[in-house]
Input
Amino acid sequence: MPPAPPPSAAEPDPFISPDEAKGVSLWRGAWQRLRRNPTAILGALIVLAFIVIAIVAPLLTPYEPGSAEWSGEVTPTDVPGPSDNHVLGLDRFGSDLLTQLLFGARQSLVYGVASTAIGLTIGAFLGVLAGGLGGWVDTFVMRVVDIMLSVPSLLLAVSVAAVLGQNAYAIMIAIGAAQVPIFARLLRGSMLSQGRSDYVLAASALGIRRRRIVMGHVLPNSVGPTIVQATLNLATAIIEVAALSFLGLGESDPANAEWGRMLVAAQDRFENDPQLALLPGAAIAITALGFTLLGEALREALDPRSRR
Output
């Protein structure tokens, strides 16, 4: 039997995806895969809703956070539930519960983004030093990172927050410090992997300076996994913000609503008024789920091994 003729130029190869046939770039191909991924869409919708609520929180409620205007309506055994003026009722201090939840989203967004930015900036700097220079610099930086990784992230954040005191900056720095080793190791490993690529060897053979190769080629091709990790770390940062507040290391000003502080205040009211703990707990869980789903979908979209 004669062999089957090869497919003609007019017929598409069934083993090559349309994206690969057109020569789509990495980020454009990732965007096209994300649009077809239900997990990515769900995560993006949750994240978008969280960001919008945090930004327009003052427009969604006529009350101020931390206001105890209705404290006279709260008794030691009962907290007023939903009413015409208070959709979700009051909290144990006589503040509007919906207002506390909305402004708590704003605090979580600010703390989460700021702390992740701190961890990403310092971690990326250390990763570039280790992966770009190598030698004794790589050894020294990674030993420091290993020491930081030997301490659990939450314990490290608690230690830093306890030293710096109870304020917003202490929370951001504490959570950012816990994220530094994650970004440093990830970027350093990605740069070392890219450093063994053929295009780096070709550039070195042409006599291009090492600094130009690292900053102009290796680093831009290594930041993809770091960006994905930053998305995932936002979920961790929001949980750790609530954890620090729950442990009494959060913002001390009661006018600044925080989901973690709401959980603390609801501990002795859980049997009679479980909504005081369930609502902020659900807000934390749903927000973290949104960032996690979006980050995992982005990781799969950028990973060539997961393309189908």
User: Anything to note?
Assistant: Residues 13-17 have pLDDT under 50 and may be disordered. The radius of gyration is 25 Å. The chain is about 65% helix and 0% strand. Residues 97-133 form the longest helix (37 residues).
